[in-house]
Amino acid sequence: MKTIRTTSAMADWSRRLHREGVTIGFVPTMGALHEGHRALIRAARLACDAVVVSIFVNPTQFGPTEDLAKYPRQLRLDRALCLKEGVDVIFAPTAEAMYPAGFQTIVAVPNLARLWEGEARPHHFQGVATVVTKLLSLVQPDIAWFGQKDFQQAAVVRQLAQDLNLPGKLVVHPTVRESDGLALSSRNVYLSVHERKTAPVLYRALQAGAAAIRGGERRGLHIQRLMARTVTAERSVTPEYLAVCDPSTLQPLQTVQRHAILLGAIRLGAVRLLDNVPVTIRPQS
Ligand code: AMP
Q1: I want to staple 220 with a disulfide (CB 3.0 to 4.6 A). Which of 232, 242, 253, 268 is the partner?
Q2: Is residue 34 domain-shared with residue 115, that is, in the same domain?
């Protein structure tokens, strides 16, 4: 397994492998790898000849008051996980390599980025869109994997890849959860013991919304209130949003028809948790 630090070495490596007819699978991450990342890496390992994992805590997607400085960094542990999973290349550039002096281009996907996470974190998605565009153009993967856990991010990436005619296919992998339903996240390490016990309430609320839809409820507002009641039953939780949305546009749905995505974010102490649950109503036969 190789660790590549510079953009030019990354681009050279990919170009050489493509010339040799090798297919490249890519999993972009910010490191502090967990079982969710491992699942994406395994899917890439199964589908492609060579696997690249990027580990880059991208400064441009953090707001000025956010946790960039204390975001967990553990390259040695991450390297061990990647080695075990048969990764070929870890691409771990420095911020200076990705954003050299004079850098000024921004990729924005304004409509999909406006609501939900975009409201809470105003410049977040343009940071994500810009870095993902750079990573995809450096690695030139045949297939890149993203997690459903970050549903809005996956939607933004799908849109930019389509709009900018980026080559390769994108695959969204289902969310990997703890046994009590909490979605795995590198930020879960910040949770206190009590907060960790409370945290699955977000998934429970989204599941309650999904169950209501499956039980025949179609009114978006009603489902949203049901989810909000579930999270606020826990006094230590501050809800940020709980929403019933169209999975393609991410706009709130007044009435659920065939497909919906239930999106949620809560605050538990200093930690923000986000999650989502997709719902499809089967037509009655
Ligand atoms: P991050 O390192 O948090 O930026 O995540 C890197 C990739 O892993 C993103 O595409 C995430 O959506 C994905 N990911 C993070 N957590 C999970 C999870 N619990 N299940 C599946 N994918 C995940």
Answers
A1: 253
A2: yes
CATH of the domain at 247: 3.30.1300.10
Final residue of a domain: which of 114, 140, 173?
A: 173
Ligand 1 site residues, Cβ closer than 6 angstroms: 29-30, 36-37, 39-40, 146-147, 149-150, 173, 175-176, 183-186
Same domain for 95 and 131? yes
Q: Catalytic site residue 37?
A: yes
CA 145 to centroid of ligand 1, rounded, Å: 9
Q: Is residue 79 part of a domain?
A: yes
Name every residue whose Cβ is closer than 8 Å to that of residue 259 and which is 6 or more positions away in sequence.
246, 247, 278, 279, 280, 281
Q: Which atom of ligand 1 is nearest to the CA of 31?
A: 2
Which pLDDT does position 285 carry in this prediction?
61
Mutating to test ligand 1, I would choose from 52, 82, 149, 151 the residue with most ligand atoms within 8 A of its C-beta, which is: 149
- Nearest ligand 1 atom to the CA of 176 is 20
pLDDT by residue (tens digit) across 97-113? 999 999 999 999 999 99
- The pLDDT tens digits of the residues spanning 135-154 come to 999 999 999 999 999 999 99
Q: How many CA atoms lie within 13 A of 89 on its CB side?
A: 26
The Cα diameter of the chain in Å comes to: 61
Q: Which atom of ligand 1 is nearest to the CA of 30?
A: 2
Catalytic residue among 18, 34, 37, 123: 37
Query: Could you tell me if 75 and 120 lie in one domain?
Result: yes
Q: What's CA 80's distance to the chain center, in Å?
A: 22
Distance 44 CA to ligand 1 centre (A): 14
Give the domain extent around 261: 186-275
Total domains in the fold of the chain: 2
Task: Please tell me whether residues 18 and 147 are part of one structural domain.
Answer: yes
* Burial of 218 from C-beta contacts in 10 A (0-12 / 13-18 / 19+): middle
